[in-house]
Amino acid sequence: MRGLAVAVACVVVVAAGCATEVSGSAVSIPTAEADPNSPEVKWMNRWCGAGKLLTTAGETSPVPTTTSDAAVLKREFLEMTGRLAGVLDAVITDLRALRPAPAPGLDTPISKIIEGLVEARGELGTAHSEVEAADPMTAEAYSSGVKRFGRSMHGLASAQNAMLGIELPDELKDAAQSASNCD
Questions:
Q1: Measured CA distances, 73 to 6, 61, 68, 165, 169 (Å)
Q2: Average pLDDT in the 99-110 region?
Q3: Of 29, 96, 135, 182, which has the fewest CB atoms closer than 10 Å, so is most exposed?
């Protein structure tokens, strides 16, 4: 389960559009701030906001418990999967609202990101439901839920791979400077 936090954090860094590695010396070049009401700034604000949501999910993932108490395991699993499902729902909604993008070439990779997150969300929901329905909680039910949870990582990896292929155009990178979520 801790692996999800790492996967989500990696996805977020790429999603925020702030992970471009550069070399050389820093040079201060004055730039005009973009209009905060421009479509590009609004788009970048939502793009970075989706990244912040994923960061929150990664930062709030609990450390796996070492208890053998079935009730505690069930409660912790349901809390974690419920929280992550809520975050994924919000991120998927935000990403869907980013289409059509204000620059060419972004709609297809954004669709692929969404597909991966929807896949992850589906597996996560199934894992949550399986464990929730287990009464009494059994090792088999918990194990099945954990396996489903693990399968949700495939969707997150797919979304991450789609994000790695995105190169934001300069006008959106410039707009990020005026977008409050892109700090």
A1: 21, 14, 7, 38, 46
A2: 93
A3: 29
